[in-house]
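To the wet lab folks,

You asked to see what we're planning to order before we commit. Fair enough. Below is the target structure as tokens, and below that is the sequence we designed to fit it. If anything looks off to you, flag it before the synthesis order goes out.
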């Protein structure tokens, strides 16, 4: 709730409302960018809390690893929902891939190094930062509390900020090692529990036998990064279903199917509709990519049509299949994996790690293959966890999030995909009541909005959240601000 004093006509001591955005990755930077450009009248103070030197990078686009590439063609990436080709135009205007000849594919599409997209977002924000329309507080938030109708935010640099509206745009939580592995292997120098930490893979030697737990995009990045470093040892990648992330089609595919006109009432009926559409598309010479892209485009409406119980069923049983088709690996990364498989250096297993122990320098793992009773005992020199974000544990990742939940302002989404929020992205507490001054931006709102793990959905949602905030702060002719 904006203080009552802010509902009266401006006076010489009138202060503009303060918007605090916690997290300066693409989600938070996108909210700041769109809000800074579109706010009219008495401009709000837009303050982004982000420890990194630049806004717009986050975990994904702060990497300097040359093997890390965007997994969406540059022509489909943009911070502007209505100018989807802006990133590629930005690249071409600056000849930004001149030192990266591998970025361009035979069909003309661009898959540049991932850091370049962070450069692009930082470039767009630079004028707003220089003009003071957006302010970057290079600090990590330590506490967020509600006092007298405003939010009090403390950070690790000793700052105390009073804000009227807070947008939580923090990054994905780190992966969680399965079972007892974290405690069993923590003492081993080549147990890599979190690949997002700088230099995490530096401990792995060129000829090491490596077990990668997980088989999605992060696993593919790890294998490509090791290859870039000259690693030639054997690698085993294990996941419950042994599903390897798929690649892009040789040529762009048209969208195919309609899943909204007669929305599926259950996870099973949605799966059946997708399978039917894939079969029909194949008969017309269109690959499954066109069908999955249509499901993705209509994802919000499809997700809203499903009851919560069916959303949970979809997440529990079908999410891995969706992820490997939806989140495709860059062609350059796919080529690395194909080469490793062909050379028998990469083994992909369906199963789980039942147990592990340290024996000298070795890590001895009991692998339980799927649909087999007898476990396999294998020895490795290194184990890398790439199981993906542990969204269900988001409240434990940072003390201020846990405190907000304890004070009744935040709760987990029932699907286990992040934080509960309304269709206006307003946070919902344990009581079920929404707080109009606390919003969730980006992947942590996935439980409500469905598809929020990649572009363009993340940037579209950032624009949506910025629009919601602007609506709460819209100034009329007399300078009065409506209640929020």
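Sequence we intend to order:
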């Amino acid at each position: 709730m904006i203080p009552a004093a802010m509902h009266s006509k401006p006076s010489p001591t009138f202060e503009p409302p303060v918007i605090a955005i916690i997290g300066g990755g693409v989600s938070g930077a996108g909210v700041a960018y769109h809000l800074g450009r579109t706010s009219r009248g008495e401009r709000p103070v837009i303050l982004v809390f982000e420890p990194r030197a630049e806004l717009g990078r986050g975990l994904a686009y702060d990497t300097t690893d040359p093997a890390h590439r965007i997994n969406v063609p540059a022509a489909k990436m943009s911070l502007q929902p209505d100018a989807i080709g802006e990133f590629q135009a930005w690249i071409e205007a600056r000849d930004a891939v001149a030192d990266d000849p591998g970025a361009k594919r035979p069909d003309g599409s661009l898959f540049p190094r991932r850091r370049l997209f962070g450069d692009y977002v930082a470039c767009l924000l630079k004028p707003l930062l220089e003009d003071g329309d957006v302010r970057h507080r290079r600090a990590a938030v330590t506490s967020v509390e509600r006092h007298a109708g405003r939010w009090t935010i403390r950070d690790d640099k000793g700052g105390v900020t009073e804000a009227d509206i807070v947008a939580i745009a923090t990054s994905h939580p780190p992966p969680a090692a399965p079972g007892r592995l974290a405690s069993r292997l923590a003492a081993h120098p080549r147990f890599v529990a979190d690949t997002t930490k700088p230099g995490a893979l530096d401990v792995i030697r060129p000829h090491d036998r490596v077990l990668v737990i997980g088989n999605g995009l992060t696993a593919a990045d790890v294998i490509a990064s090791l290859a870039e470093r000259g690693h030639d040892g054997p690698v085993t990648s294990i996941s419950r279903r042994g599903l390897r992330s798929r690649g892009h089609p040789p040529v762009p595919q048209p969208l195919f199917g309609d899943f909204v006109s007669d929305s599926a009432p259950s996870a099973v009926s949605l799966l059946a509709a997708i399978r039917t559409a894939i079969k029909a598309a194949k008969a017309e010479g269109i690959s499954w990519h066109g069908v999955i892209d249509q499901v993705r485009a209509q994802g919000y409406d499809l997700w809203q049509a499903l009851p919560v119980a069916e959303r949970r069923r979809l997440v529990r049983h079908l999410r891995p299949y969706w992820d490997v088709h939806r989140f495709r690996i860059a062609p350059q990364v796919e080529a690395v994996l194909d080469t490793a498989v062909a050379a028998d250096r990469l083994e992909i297993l369906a199963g789980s790690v039942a147990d592990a122990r340290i024996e000298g320098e070795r890590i001895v793992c009991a692998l339980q293959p799927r649909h087999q009773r007898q476990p396999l005992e294998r020895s490795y020199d290194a184990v890398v966890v790439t199981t993906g974000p542990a969204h269900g544990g988001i409240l434990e990742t940072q003390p201020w999030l846990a405190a907000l939940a304890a004070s009744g302002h935040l709760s987990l989404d029932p699907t286990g995909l992040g934080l509960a929020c309304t269709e206006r992205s307003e946070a919902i507490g344990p009581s079920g009541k929404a707080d109009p001054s606390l919003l969730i931006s980006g992947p942590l709102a996935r439980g409500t909005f469905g598809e929020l793990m990649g572009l363009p959905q993340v940037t579209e949602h950032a624009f949506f959240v910025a629009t919601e905030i602007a609506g709460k702060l819209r100034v009329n002719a007399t300078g009065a601000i409506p209640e929020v």
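Structural context that might help your review: The chain has a mean pLDDT of 90. The two ends are 6 Å apart (CA to CA).

Thanks,
Computational group
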